[in-house]
């Protein structure tokens, strides 16, 4: 049977490994969030630019909304 010290060391190692896994998972989520946010921002800028171009084209053609 393992001694009390061995059980304590095993528990510490298990907690350490679990903590590292949590930190790695959070890092991965943070990275993915950054990618999604950048893609969303780029799409939003494109959509706003298209709206502005359409408004400008209508205004230049003499058609006002």
Q: Report the sheet-strand fraction.
A: under 5%
Name the helix and strand elements from N-terminus to C-terminus, one letter apiece. H
Distance between the termini: 83 Å
User: Given the structure, what is the number of helices?
Assistant: 1
Percent helix, as a range, is: over 70%
Shape: rod-shaped
Q: What would you call the quaternary organization?
A: single chain
Explain the overall architecture.
There is one protein chain. The protein is built from one helix and no strands. The chain is mostly helical.
Give a short synopsis of this structure.
The chain has 65 residues and is mainly α. It has one helix spanning 4-60.
Brief descriptors of the model:
single chain, mainly alpha, 1 helix, about 90% helix
Element layout with pairings:
Elements: H1 4-60
């Amino acid at each position: 049977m393992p001694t009390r010290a061995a059980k304590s060391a095993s528990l510490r190692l298990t907690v350490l490994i679990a903590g590292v896994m949590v930190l790695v998972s959070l890092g991965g989520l943070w990275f993915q969030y950054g990618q999604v946010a950048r893609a969303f921002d780029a799409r939003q800028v494109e959509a706003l630019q298209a709206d502005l171009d359409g408004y400008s084209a209508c205004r230049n053609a003499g058609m006002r909304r």
